[in-house]
Design goal:
Blueprint: H1 9-22, H2 26-31, H3 33-36, H4 42-49, H5 55-106, H6 118-132, E1 136-137, E2 143-145, H7 146-149, E3 169-171, E4 178-180, H8 186-198, E5 203-212, E6 224-234, H9 239-254, E7 260-267, E8 270-279, E9 296-305, H10 307-313, E10 321-328, H11 329-337, H12 350-353
The structure holds zinc ion.
């Protein structure tokens, strides 16, 4: 009797199924395909050995071999399906973890350090410039009596200059009229009174702070805005001292290519008075829409202290002289950073605010 080449067939199948079960990685499975069911497999060599069988046995043996091979091929495909879906699930799980990290990083709010707004930054920079020039920094109340806001500054009740300030009134009349200060100038009066009472004259101070006017907000005006006031009270102060301070400040804050100039103006509490203008920071003096083609931008007002103001606080104008100046901090920030619309300063748009950290 001829040896049956398919004697080992059961063993080959069991061996192949055992190997398949031990493979737990798709790449390993693909690598084993040739040796398990492909041309290097036991099935291929058994197929060749069938030629030695008698023709009547060959068909039956061939069918048995095909049946065994199909069992292993089915098991192979099933294993591939299992490993493939496992890999897919693992990939999904890993992707989901990545997504989790993204959510933690981007969506969950973590504390972020803030920073002062542009107006506060500008105020500090201005204070630094003036402190370097020998000025001290003082503050005054934002709610003022009519006397400090108007009368002591040579603006009596019927004075037409009151029309220059659209005022927020807190209380009218008795016992006294109280307003939200329309300018930082009343702080001058407080400083002079305190210096007189405490014997600390002379005064070289700047007074930054918030002011209020009933302006409808637009690109160049806010109803609540910021000014910085300057006050010098000393002996023998001349207009040239005022002009020098304005010029020195302008170059120190805006840069050497920005000039200041004074033009005659009227304010009730200074005489003579001037508006001070600086070279337009947008066009550098060439002329543009912002400066109405003049090359100059008005920044503030200034002048020599009116004797009536000295008398209002009890200082002798024959002994003391001095000057005052004031300008908008918001306007300074607008000019220096070329902000088209001043309302951006109060709209709390983080995209705007972040630019000035
Ligand atoms: Zn210009």
């Amino acid at each position: 009797m001829k040896p049956n080449p398919l004697e080992s067939l059961d063993h080959v199948v069991r061996d192949a199924l055992g190997q398949l079960a031990a493979i737990d990685d798709l790449a390993d499975l693909n690598g084993a395909e040739a040796s398990l069911i492909g041309r290097r497999s036991a099935f291929t060599s058994l197929q060749k050995s069938l030629g030695a069988l008698a023709p009547e046995d060959r068909a039956r043996a061939g069918a048995a071999l095909q049946e065994a091979r199909r069992r292993v091929e089915d098991a192979f495909e099933e294993r591939r399906r299992v490993l493939d879906s496992g890999a897919w699930e693992r990939r999904m799980r890993e992707d989901r973890l990545d997504l989790g990290d993204v959510i933690a990083e981007r969506v969950v709010w973590s504390p972020r350090a803030g920073h002062p707004g542009l107006v506060a930054i500008t105020q500090r920079e201005l204070e630094d410039v003036f402190v370097a020039m020998g000025f001290s920094v003082a503050e005054g109340p934002e709610v003022e009596s009519d006397w400090y806001n108007f009368e002591a500054l040579n603006i009596p009740p019927a004075h037409p200059a009151r029309g220059m300030w659209d005022t927020f009134y807190v209380e009218m009349g008795e016992p006294e009229t109280v307003v939200l200060r329309t300018h930082t100038s009343p702080t001058q009066i407080h400083l002079m009174e305190e210096a007189l009472a405490s014997g600390t004259l002379p005064i070289h101070s700047v007074m930054p702070g918030r002011c209020y006017r009933r302006d409808t907000p637009d690109a160049r005006h806010l109803a609540a805005f910021h000014q910085v006031e300057g006050l010098v009270v000393d002996r023998g102060i001349a207009f040239a001292d005022l002009a020098g301070v304005i010029e020195t400040f302008t170059r120190a804050y805006f840069g050497d290519d920005i000039e200041a100039r004074l033009r005659p103006a009227y304010f009730p509490f200074t005489e003579p008075s001037a508006e001070f203008e600086i070279t337009c920071t947008i066009c550098r003096g060439a002329g543009c829409r912002t400066c109405s083609q003049t090359g100059w931008i008005e920044l503030g007002g200034c002048g020599m202290l009116d004797p009536a103001v000295f008398e209002a606080v009890g200082l002798d104008p024959e002994v003391w002289s001095g000057f005052a100046f004031g300008f908008g901090i918001d306007r300074c920030a607008q000019m220096r950073h070329q902000i088209a619309d001043m309302r951006a300063l109060t709209e709390n748009d983080v995209r705007f605010l972040e630019q000035f950290s």
